[in-house]
Amino acid sequence: MLTTHPLTVRFIRMLFGRQTTFGWFCLFWNGKIIKTTIYIDGYNLYYGLLRNSKLKWLDIVRLFSEYILDKNAELTQVRYYTAPVLGRMSDDPMSTQRQRLYLQALRKMYPNSLEIIQGKILATTPYQRLVRPIIESPELKIVQVYDFNEKKTDVNLASDLITGAWTGIYEQAVVCSNDSDLEGALAAVKRHQPHLRIGVVAPIKSKNHRHISGDLIKHSDWRKILNVSHVAAAQLPVKIPNSKIQKPDSW
């Protein structure tokens, strides 16, 4: 078993910050190449960082391989979890086509190292109570609304993360999400496979590490906030090589 002098531990924590765990540096100093799989919650990434930006044409493989992972990590696969946009329910009817084009671009660029796992969007029209009366219609107490729920994404990601731990797919898993619903999966991996590394990359606009979900932090070995400058630098080519696919004009 690897042992390290307590003064060395203290020095590393002082030099790099307490939020980064010592286990990560053991790997770094050993120079060991660790097999790494990335698990991306697509909708959490979109709503956390990409929505209302011009950075949606994102090269997620390049983002992690060049800007997030340490040089000792061997990126073996990126797993991207999303769900098809419902065109009839979108503010922009072209949303569906743009999403489809984007996924085609990713598959073309990375046919061997990228896996796209799709869930679904469930649209319902429930009745909801008003928080406060509408001045123009004070008699209204209950209104009917559109409600959209993404189905299967969290479950697919969580089950794949646990399956990968038991089947030896990775030595390090990096979860790109700030969704505390994934806590159970991270906890299960660390409880039963404590030798595996887990990193959490939070797609949030805040630069404050306290805004990363505490439920995820306590089961991770290291964590980062996704930097907008890295997202901007890791964009797909306007035209995808050896294809007719190109970035939509309105994106």
Account of the 3D structure:
The chain has 251 residues and is an alpha/beta fold. A six-stranded parallel sheet has the order 3-2-1-8-9-10, with helices on both faces. Strands 4-7 form a two-stranded antiparallel ribbon. Strands 5-6 form a two-stranded antiparallel sheet. Strand 2, helix 5 and strand 3 form a beta-alpha-beta unit. Helix 6 packs parallel to helix 7. The longest helix is centred in the middle third of the chain and has 15 residues. The N terminus is likely disordered.
Level of helix content?
A: 25-40%
Shape: globular
Strand order of the largest sheet: 3-2-1-8-9-10
**Structural class, please?**
alpha/beta
Fill in the keyword field for this structure.
two-stranded antiparallel sheet
Secondary-structure map:
Layout lengths: L5 H11 L5 H9 L3 E8 H9 L9 H9 L4 E10 L12 H15 L4 E5 L1 E5 L2 E3 L12 E3 L2 E5 L1 H15 L4 E5 L6 H10 L4 E6 L11 H4 L4 E4 L2 H6 L18
Parallel strand pairs: 1-2, 1-8, 2-3, 8-9, 9-10
Antiparallel strand pairs: 4-7, 5-6
